[in-house]
Design brief:
Layout: H1 2-34, H2 39-58, H3 64-75, H4 79-107
Helix pairs in contact: 1-2, 1-4, 2-4, 3-4
């Protein structure tokens, strides 16, 4: 049951970060098209700029996870630290996957 809850939370962090990068890049490309800018170039640049914000958005909108890790280190209980690191890695993988997907859609070659 504990593992199922962890996997559910990991997938939530992954897809939130993925969605922020993918959705922001696609909508930015549409805005670029409407303003007569190169949409693919704009999407490509936005994907890399939104990568960190995808992670921050997935982790709760602030760097609260990092502050929680610091507090846990001071208290000496390592189990929550591992859980937070797993969530940070999951959000990073989601944001990176979104960036790679946009790169592949724009250029056609995988990174």
């Amino acid at each position: 049951m504990l593992l199922g809850h962890l996997v559910k939370d990991m997938s939530t962090y992954f897809f939130v970060a993925f969605g922020i990068v993918l959705g922001g890049s696609i909508l930015g490309g549409i805005a670029a098209l409407l303003t007569r800018q190169p949409p693919f170039h704009t999407m490509y640049e936005l994907a890399f700029k939104l990568k960190i914000w995808g992670m921050v958005g997935a982790l709760g909108g602030t760097f609260d996870s990092f502050m929680q890790i610091e507090r846990i280190f001071q208290e000496g209980d390592m189990s929550p630290v591992i859980k937070q690191i797993i969530f940070i890695v999951s959000a990073f993988i989601g944001a990176d996957t979104g960036t790679r997907l946009i790169h592949w859609l724009v250029h056609g070659d995988p990174i």
